[in-house]
Every structure is written in structure tokens, then in C-alpha cells.
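Need residues for this backbone.
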């Protein structure tokens, strides 16, 4: 019954349903150590469902994955960095809320693509400058916090921005993952009422789709713990970045 209703609400092809399930798995994996996986989801869902609707559609999936990550890594968060970033992230979200309301869906899709491409550039920059320390100046947290808030509201694409900041602080692996898990959990919860009441992109209809995606999201999160140990990091990151870049260029 649910699937029949979804077929009418979301007239997707068989391939698009498979792609949606795959994206659900990548959403879960992105929270458990498979860096960059979440970026692929953004342009793919925007291409299938439209720019603004896709952002609201993906958000509950992210919250589900965040809960899983917070439960697993909750003891490792460094709250000093979470609290330092949150006010700026909230400010960036409010700016994005206004911008997203003022543009049409075609412009929204292009903005998503641009933000994702910038995110890819940041990930490449991180790899190249991995050993170069960045001072922990207040302006640095303000700049990246605001940019992260803006990009997470427009396209759920703040991962690379936040990774740049947290990696620059030279946090150990578990503290890095735990701090990021709590930051994104709080930020994504903050966005939920804005999507429901302002953009109206989270509805009972969209939540019925998200309900089907919970299993792939959780499955991907569990798989991520094991796959990160088996898949060569460089080869995996190259594959994700290349496919994400191609999807983003298609949106443009």
C-alpha cells in the first residue's frame, strides 16, 4: 500500500528507485567513516526530485544517520569546537533560508551544484595540504561555520567545509568523528522546522519516502564501519569525487 502510494507520488523508474536506495546507503556510510560519500547523494537527488524538494527529502535520512553516529561516537565529542561553530552555522542557515526562498528551482539546482563543486575542491585541498596547520583564529571558525550553515541549508553539503575545520584542529580520529556527529545532529534538527513550516519541503508524503529509506541508511551506516577498513581510501575517494563532480556538472 505504501509503495503503491509512493509510486503515484514519486513516479520513478526502476533504476531511479535503485539509485535512491544506493544513495540511502551512502548517506549512512558518510556518517561512519566513508568520507565524501554523502556528497554524491546531493546532486543525484536534486536531479531526480528537483533542487529545493530534494533537500527536504534527504534531511530526515540524514537525521536518522546522525542518530546512529551519535549513539556510537557520543563519548568522543569535543564540545569546545561544537559550541564555537554552532552560532555561526545557525547564522549561515538563516541567510540560506532567505536566499533559497528568493530563487526558483532551476537556480536552486545550480546553486547546489556550485556548492558541491566547491566542496570537492575543499576535499582535494585538504588532501594536498594535509600537513599544513591552520591557526585556530576566531575568524576561521566564523568563516567556515557560516559557510557550513549556508551550504547545509541549501544542499545538505556542509561535510567538506566542516571537515576542513575539524581536520585543521588536528583532532584525533574518534574525537573528529564524534565532534562532527554531534555538530551535524544539532544543526540538522535545527533545520527540520524550517523545512516544514517555511520551505514546506518536509511533508507527510516526503516522510513516507524517508521511511522506506531508513533500512538502507542504517544498513549503509553498519557497512561503513567494515568497508572503511577494506576499501583503499585513495581509490574510493577518487571514485566518489569523480562521480559526484559528473553529477554536479549535469545539474549545471
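Answer:
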Amino acid at each position: 500500500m505504501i509503495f503503491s502510494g509512493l509510486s503515484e507520488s514519486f513516479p520513478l523508474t526502476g533504476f531511479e528507485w535503485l539509485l535512491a536506495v544506493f544513495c540511502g546507503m551512502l548517506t549512512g556510510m558518510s556518517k561512519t567513516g566513508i568520507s565524501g560519500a554523502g556528497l554524491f547523494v546531493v546532486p543525484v537527488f536534486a536531479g531526480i526530485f528537483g533542487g529545493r524538494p530534494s533537500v527536504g527529502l534527504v534531511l530526515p535520512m540524514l537525521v536518522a544517520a546522525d542518530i546512529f553516529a551519535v549513539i556510537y561516537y557520543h563519548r568522543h565529542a569535543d564540545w569546545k569546537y561544537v559550541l564555537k561553530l554552532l552560532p555561526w552555522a545557525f547564522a549561515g542557515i538563516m541567510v540560506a533560508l532567505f536566499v533559497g526562498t528568493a530563487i526558483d528551482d532551476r537556480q536552486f539546482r545550480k546553486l547546489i551544484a556550485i556548492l558541491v563543486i566547491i566542496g570537492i575542491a575543499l576535499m582535494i585541498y585538504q588532501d594536498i595540504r594535509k600537513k599544513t596547520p591552520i591557526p585556530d583564529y576566531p575568524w576561521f571558525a566564523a568563516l567556515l561555520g557560516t559557510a557550513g550553515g549556508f551550504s547545509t541549508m541549501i544542499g545538505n553539503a556542509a561535510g567538506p567545509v566542516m571537515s576542513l575545520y575539524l581536520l585543521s584542529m588536528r583532532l584525533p580520529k574518534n574525537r573528529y568523528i564524534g565532534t562532527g556527529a554531534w555538530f551535524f545532529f544539532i544543526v540538522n534538527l535545527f533545520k527540520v522546522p524550517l523545512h516544514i513550516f517555511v520551505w514546506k519541503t518536509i511533508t507527510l508524503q516526503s516522510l513516507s519516502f524517508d521511511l522506506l529509506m531508513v533500512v538502507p541508511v542504517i544498513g549503509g551506516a553498519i557497512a561503513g564501519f567494515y568497508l572503511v577498513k577494506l576499501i583503499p581510501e585513495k581509490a574510493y575517494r577518487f571514485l566518489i569525487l569523480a562521480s559526484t563532480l559528473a553529477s554536479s556538472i549535469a545539474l549545471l
